[in-house]
Structures are given as structure tokens and as C-alpha cells.
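As promised in the previous annual report, we have extended the structural survey to additional targets. Below is the entry for histidine kinase.
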Amino acid sequence: MGNRLNYKGKLNILLITYSFFITMIVLVLGFILIKNTAKPISNTENYFVAYSQDELIAGITYGGIETKIDELPTKTFNIIDVQKNYNKEILSKGIGVMLAVFAIVMVASILVSKSISKKVIAPIEKIASSLPEVINGKEVEIHGHIFEKELSGVGSALTKSSQKIKMLLNEANSINSYISHEQKNTLAILRGKIQLEEWDELIGLVDKMSSSLDDILALNATEDIECDEEVDLGIVCAEAVDVYSKLYKNIELEIDEEEIPMIKGRELWMYRAVCNLIENAIKYGDNSKIIVKAYNQNGSAIICVEDNGKGVDKEIIDKIFNYKYRGQNLKKDGYGIGLNLVYQITNLCGGITFVDSKSGKGAKFYMAFKALTIY
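The corresponding C-alpha cell record, generated without further manual editing, is:
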């Protein structure tokens, strides 16, 4: 409210000042006009001869048209005195008119300022009042006011900001959900295994928790770090396969002989994406052979993780990358975030993710990226 009053006060002062300067300009122009008023013409310097109107009429009437103008009665005036009286008369009447004009302009300016303030501030206050709703994740659109065209950019930016905030809140909720469920369950199992001293399984659970935490770190980094690293997908795939080959023996790496182009991204993200695809293949591949491929296709860098498991049903193939989505027939442990993380990482790095699969015939998960252009 204080800011509004301050704004309106400044606007009023501005308009009043404007009115004052306009009036002063009128006064100056009037003064210049008066100063430059043409002087009466006379043959005698500083004097002029004036004929009495009454006597002039009488002379013509009684003397006839033959009466010479030089024979008519005349009066002689000092031109300076006449000019002073003339200026004085003009100023006495002109100042009053100018002051009246100033008063009218000032009143009109105040009325206009109030009207402008109402029409300008009202939509701004409407936008400001929407901010609490934006913070709560609600999308807000500003329409229907007189300055819609002028404020369309503000309304559009606010709407985009609200959508961005909503998206960030959803991502934060996703991470919180992931932590509260996945990690809580893992810790509960870990506690039980420690009590039973089943050390081999304990190590596996610790590795799983470490992997999950890596996913969380990768997700958290997406808003603060740009995809500005040069990444070699062949090396990323080799590192991931090297780690998982110690846990799953039936895994194979195929690197294209043709040089794989570098891409622009984040190496940590790429590594976590490949690891999640491998983990997905291990979970749902029915112990089949897993092949991790990295190759060049038409100048694009491609990663493919292939298994010969049960595949993906046609009905759910479009939903498989949704957050926390898991098919009804997929009863493995996990909380359904892995493929969504793959999708997010690929999208952030300017690539695309898709799957080629038929039920009962395995699945091929692809990540495709545009080659890095070096000038």
C-alpha cells in the first residue's frame, strides 16, 4: 500500500510539474508576443497622429467627399505612452486568462493521474496478489484488464514462472518421495541384514543405496549445472559395463569401430543414465544376455541397452518413462524412478529417449544425441 501511494504521489507531482512548465511556456510566449506587437506607423518618431472617429465622420458628412483629410481635426499621442498602456492592458487581462488555463490544466492533470494510477496500478496489484498462489504451485494467468496488451509480457512471464515453480516443486516432491520410500525401505532391510550378519547381501544393499544416492545427486544438479561438458559416450558405456560386469556376468559391450562423435552434456549424468538402463535390463531381462552399444549413426551419437527378457507391452510403452510408473506385471523391487531419470537427463542434454520392444521379445532402450559441433 505504501509503494502504491508513493507511486501515485510521484505521478501526481510529475503531471503537476508538467502543467506548470506548459503554463510557463504559454506565459513566455505571450510576453514575447506582447513585446513584439507592431507599433503604429507615424511620420514623426515616437509620435503618431490619430483622427477622432466622431470628427472624422462629421467632417465627411458635412464637408462632403471633397473634404481633404488634412483639414480634419487631429490629436497627437506619444507612442511610448500608448505602447505602455497597451501592454499593461494586455497583461492585466492575459495573466488572468493564463492563471485560469494553469488551474484548468492542473486540475485536469490530477484527474488524469488518478485515472492512470487506477488503471495501471489495479492490474499490477492483481498480478502481485497472485504471487502467493504462484508460490503454492498454482498456475496463474492474467487477462481481461484495460492494459492487457502492455502487461501481456508481465502476465506471460508470471505464468511461465508459476509453471516453472510448479515443475520444480514436483521435482522436489519426487526426490523427497524417493528418499522417504526407497531409502527408508533399504535402511530397514540393511538393519535386518546386519543383525543376521549376512555380509555379502549387506554389501549389495550398500551398493544399491550408494547408486540411489548418486541418482539423487544427479537430479539435484540439473538446475544448477549446464550441459557444457564434452562427453565421450564410448568411455561412459565402458565404465558402466566394467562396474556391472562384476555383479552380472552376462553383460557385453559393443563399441562401433567408426569414431563416436563427442556430445555436449554432463559426464556424471550420462553415466547414471546408462547405469539405470543396465539396472533396468538386469531387473526385467530374465537373466538374459545384456548388450550395451555405443555407435555413430548419421553423425549422431547413439547408446543402446538391449536385453532378451519379457519386453514391454504395447499398452504401456508410451508411459514407461513417466515418473514412478511401473507396469502391473513388473513386481521387482524399486520405486519406478530409474527410467524417468534417464528421460530427464537425456532431455536436459538435448537428446531423445525411446524404446523398441514387443512383449516377450526383449527390449532395446535408446538414447540419441546430436554430435558436438566444434568451430
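The first helix runs from residue 2 to 35. Confidence is low (pLDDT under 50) at residues 1-5, 38-51, 62-69. These points will be discussed at the next consortium meeting with the crystallography subgroup.
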